[in-house]
Amino acid sequence: MKLKNKKGEVNIIAVVLAIVFVVAISSLIFTWVRKTATEGTEKSADKVTAQDICNDKVKISVNDVKDNGDNFDISLENLKSLPITDFIVRMEKDSEADVKKVKQIVGSYESIVLNVKKPSGFNPQVIKVVPRITLGKPDITSLQEGWWICSKQLSEYEVY
């Protein structure tokens, strides 16, 4: 009976296993990087799309603000075709500010009155209203639905 020398076979098996391990790890890393890059690109594209929609299809005007004791009635108008789903209302006086979110849907070319609770501690001199829109597919691709604040479309009203 002849004994075979198996030292060479063990080295080959170790090299093959090392190569398989490196290829498996490399493919996992490549898949993760590709997925991350694709998601980042989709989110960036959605931000650009939302900003374009904000610039082209959203515009509001605050026409009047009435002081009703504890609340303000803010008369505003949607001057474009895209419905607006929410508003951010910022009330300011000097260095003081109070921010409220108001959920009220305003259709295209529609006028409404927002009822906003007055801040405690100061009477605002300036009221700023910023529209917030909700977009879904096909406008955006990374999410089923998302919202964006159209900060460049803010409308300002000075309270006297």
User: How many E-type strands?
Assistant: 8
- Helix run count: 1
Q: Helix and strand string, N-terminal first? A: HEEEEEEEE
Question: How would you describe the shape?
Answer: elongated
Please state the CA-atom Rg, rounded to the nearest Å: 29 Å
Structural class: alpha+beta
Largest sheet: 5 strands, antiparallel
Question: Could you characterize what this model shows?
Answer:
- With 160 residues, this protein is of the alpha+beta class.
- The protein has one domain.
- Helix content is 32%, strand content 40%.
- It has 1 helix and 8 strands; from the N terminus they run αββββββββ.
- The strands form 2 sheets. Strands 3, 4, 6, 7 and 8 form a 5-stranded antiparallel sheet that branches. A 3-stranded antiparallel sheet has the order 1-2-5, with no helix packed on it.
- A hairpin with a 3-residue loop joins strand 1 and strand 2.
- 16% of the residues are buried.
- The mean pLDDT is 87.
Q: How would you concisely characterize the structure shown here?
A:
32% of the residues lie in helices and 40% in strands. It is of the alpha+beta class and 160 residues long. The longest helix is centred in the N-terminal third of the chain and has 51 residues, at 7-57.
